[in-house]
């Protein structure tokens, strides 16, 4: 049994004539007769009986017609509402962002979209403490979408990468390492090493690397912005952090690349609910971001070796 058969049944019941019903449905009369015959066979009852040149419902057919008519009416109403909602585009969306992107990178993406969009959006932006916090707020509908790290084992969410981040050694400018073109992890062993602390995702993304290399690293900050302050007040220490703040680093600090880890260690991207009515209402923006991501051709981040 399928929807077409039920719609054919309703047409025959209303017009009481196979020929007229076939014309109204734009199908052939034999095809209509075969469809009704299959429906009757599946139900195990006769729905129509001949009355001259017409057909009329049997008693069972009348009861079936009442039930099917109600069901199809409700279905049509639901389809109509869904289509109407799909036509309604959002004029503003709530966007979350981890702290590392709350500057030029994020504004550039959003401004570029509005410059080209037929229907520009008002972006209501709020800083999120972590990727996990971003995900929770998408799920409870506080946020429509978020720029954050990749959600782990989160069914029902879509995510695409947008930014590549590398790990670096962050030190005070007077630290001897600050004058180096690059350092190795072995070069750092003699220093006090500081890095991310829970619940930051990067604590877990780097934990495996530190264990593999036998590095003793103390948890000291939750994000890249905080790592600047930690490095500034712990002048002899080395902060192992992501290079997200490279364009806003303070004059008193230096970022030194780590040899062997020149490839991107972590990706930050864009997350939203998939198959969601609210997401569908800003579909052009999702498509815009997804197309940008696809054009970059991202490689697998190094963190996947350790997480």
Characterization of the model:
With 307 residues, the chain is α/β, with parallel strands linked by helices. It is built from eleven helices and twelve strands. The chain has helices spanning 3-15, 18-25, 29-43, 59-87, 104-116, 131-139, 185-188, 201-213, 224-233, 277-280, 283-296; strands at residues 48-51, 54-57, 92-98, 122-128, 145-149, 157-165, 167-172, 192-196, 217-221, 237-242, 253-257, 266-273. Strand 3 (92-98), helix 5 (104-116) and strand 4 (122-128) form a beta-alpha-beta unit.
Order of helices and strands: HHHEEHEHEHEEEHEHEHEEEHH
Task: Give the CA-based shape.
Answer: elongated
Overall mean pLDDT: 89
Biggest sheet details: 5 strands, mixed
How many beta-strand runs? Answer: 12
Task: Please identify the structural class as seen in this structure.
Answer: alpha/beta
DSSP helical segment count: 11
Distance between the termini: 49 Å
Going across the major beta sheet, what is the strand order?
4-3-5-12-6
Q: What is the radius of gyration?
A: 31 Å
Strand content: 15-25%
pLDDT < 50 runs, ≥5 residues: none
Q: What is the percent of helical residues?
A: 40-55%
